[in-house]
Amino acid sequence: MGNSSAGIIYAHGKEDDILKLDPEDETSFDYTIPTSVLDSQLIVPKQDSLILNNDGRFFRVLTVNDNIITARLLAVSGSGGGGQGGGGSIITYSDRAKLNKQDPSSNYLINGKEASIQVYGVSGKDYDGSILDAKLTVYWTLSERTSTGILSEYARGNFPIDASTDENPIWTSFEYGTKARQSTENVLTMYASGSASTASREFSYTFFTSNLELLPHTNFNNVNTYTPNGVTIYCSTVGDLEKIIYYYFENSDGEMVLLNNGGTPVEAGTNE
Question: Is 86 part of any domain?
């Protein structure tokens, strides 16, 4: 041991007795343990003492303040004097599920058009590293951002996914475009949970829906289309998203010929 006076102390702490020091930090394995759960109240814990709880978890004592012990969760694998806690290594586990996403290529969407987001879920793990859930449930909501900036929910639901790992993700596609409210700013939120895993952190994805129209322009006159300097074309576009317009004409053979190779970018809004 790192401290010659350290020793093994037995405890009988329940789930609501032994708590993570920072529940939101999945990379931390520090816990608080009340001295009241120690089997013997005659033994005074010291730094580097090992606490063996009756559920099989090992902890190495970091500090003792009044009746609260701060300790680090250890694995029982390993031997010798190296490593943290006198030979143990930290178990990399968390009972919290995770939900990861891959954003679509664009967050601008034509009203009613299909669009999907890719997600995969990772089950929480028990203290021995075993998977808690083979399947997870993803919960989603769709909200509209009002003119006052407040989110107003208008749809919600859930769907099952197979739990996977970060090394071997099982991607699932969720279609949201046809569910979205039209011509507004939308926010999609999602989180995953399991029967044993605690709920994952929630993520949000903001996207914009818009109408898209191509209309005749009042200045267009087919008599004056062809001029000595080229072809004159007028049209109007409507839509709060960036657009690309392609101009074609039909030749004498009935073939469609592209006039502006690569298209003409048009900014969001109504343009002529």
Answer: no
